[in-house]
Structures are given as C-alpha cells and as structure tokens.
User: Fold this.
Amino acid sequence: MIRIALRAQYFLYFAIMGLYLPYFNLYLSHIRLTGFQIGALSALRSVLMVIFPVVWGLVADRLQARRSVYILCTLLSTSIWGLYLYTTDFEWLLLITLGYGIFYSPIIAFLEAFTMDALGNDKLRYGQTRVWGSIAFIAIVLLVGRLIEIYPINLILIMVLCIGLIQSAAALGLPEFQIKKNRKIAGDPRRLTSPDSIVFLTAGFLMLMSHGAYYGFFSIHLEKLGFGATFIGICWAVASISEIGIMMGSKTFFQRFSIENVLVFSFVVAAGRWFLLSVAVSGPIILIVQILHAITYGAFHMASIIYIDRLSSAASKTLGQTVNNAVSYGMGLMAGFFLSGYLYETAGARTLFIISGGIALTGGTLLKLYQTGYQKDRRSRHV
Assistant:
C-alpha cells in the first residue's frame, strides 16, 4: 500500500509537470512577456528551489515530521497557484511565483526521500516507482497539446489547480516514515561536504544548467520553427516515453553498469543532444533527438538519487535529497534560465543550444577527471 501511495504522488506531481514544463512558458509568451521576463520568472522559481528545499528538509528531519510538512507544502502551493488566474501583470506574476515556489520547491525532494525509505535495501528498483510520473507526464502533454489548439492556453492554469488539489488530498494516504534519531550522525555534515559530494553536486549543477534552454525555451523554439501545440506535446511525450524502459528495468540496468559510469555517459549524451537541437529543423529529426532523454534525464536522474542517498547519513536522507535538488534543479536551472533568457533574445536558439552542449560536456569532463584521479590515488595507496 505504501508503494501504491507513492506511485500516486509521482503520477500527480508529474501530471502537473506535464502542464508546467511544456506549456507554462508558452502561456507566458502568449500573454506578451519578453524572453527576459520569462527567463526571470523561471529563474526565480529556481532560486527558491535552492533555499527552501533545504529549509524545509532541515525542519522535517529535525521534527521528524516529513509527512506533515509535505502535506502542508502541497496544499499551500496549490492554493497560491490559483492566483495566476487573476493577473497577467509581470510584477504580480513575480509575487505569485515567489509565494508558490516557497511551498512547491521541496515537494519532489521529500517524495524522493519517502521512496528511498520505502524501498529499503531494494533501492535499485527506484525506477519502477518513479516511472508512474513519466506515464502521467506523457498522458498530460499529449492531451493538453490537443486541447490548447481548441481552447485558450490559460486552460493549463485551471488544470494545474485541479490536479494540485487532488494531490494534496491523496497525500493524506502517505505514512510518516520514522527514522531513529542518532545525534552523532544527524548533525554530521561530512558526508555531504566530502570531495565526492562536492564534485558530484558541481557536475549536477552544470548538467541542469545545460537543461535551462530545453526547459525554458524548447516549446517556444518549436513554435518559432512553425510547429503547432500538438507536435510540441508529442515531442515532450516522446522524451518521457523513452525514459520508461530504462526506469522499468532500473535494477538490471544498475547491476550491469556502475552509478559512476552512468553519470559520466549521461553528460556526454546530453552534450550531443543539445548540439543536435542547435541545427535540427525537421520534425522527424527533432523527435529522434528527444529519445536521448532516456539517458540525459532518466538514467542521470535515477543515478543521482541513488548516489546522493549513498552519500547521506541515515538520519539526514531528506536533507541529502533536498541539497541535491537545490544545487541541481535549483541553482543549476536558475543559472540556465537566466543564461537562456539572455541568449535567446540576443543570440538566438542555435547559439543557445550550442553553449548548453558545451556546459554539459564540461560537467562530464569534471566528473570523469575526478573519478580517474580518485581511482589512481586509491591504487597508489595499495601499492
């Protein structure tokens, strides 16, 4: 029953993502916001993902009240989202985004921590729970892509509000995972400040920074190329469909390939993906490139969640996931959105994706060089 409740939360959370990621910035473009304003709103949300997941994670771990904090955040973030229905003024949108992000930002990190606890010693099966989020994302982007060709695009605001309310109600079915308090390890930050952690978090920052162009301007870029909302929805759906196979077979996948090798490979594939998008103008080619999402998001995300769980002490699992989320999806995307908002206006999509590819390649190189140096150092100690 616990895993069913978690799968429902992933389903509802990523149903909202299926509305937000492909279509919210497109909505902002339709209400005449500039590229810089769109980038600023996206970056503000990312700034909040740097600060408040860590704040809420510390509160939850200290009070041992993750379930209560999770329910509070889902309910309040949904309520604040409803305010988007009443204004298109940029200054008000900034304030609403601020309030929404304070409570929305920790939700996914809490959900990842819940899942790691529920899986126990079977963490390599994480993908089989997380895949329900991908299923929801696919269903939503395909449905909404068709709907907004018939109805006004602000329909997505109402749909996010409705799904958020359902998610808040469904969260009541989650148990409170009790972690035995251990003062020695609970206050010990060494695992999250070790060289392994610092290099990994830096690389993760660069990976998500490179995704700023994709999450912020991919839909707008496709529309500028002349594609309609249905095709845009199909592109996002293909990306999510591609990750389902790797998530369903996550245990076998990680038994065959090491976490470290998967991480490095995902950076290389990400670089290639962004370089290809910088030149692709054909619909079929763009769809083929979207299949690489299986590695650049699916494999990378699973490896990251498992890796940071290994680096976190037993009493700081929530904090570990929130730090990872804050550095990558917070700071990384924040930097990526700001950079993308500026470059899209001044240099265009092609240059934007080329630079994104270079950023991903830098992150992968850093991680590989550290792994190589660490292995050499370890071998020298045994000589």
The first helix runs from residue 2 to 30.
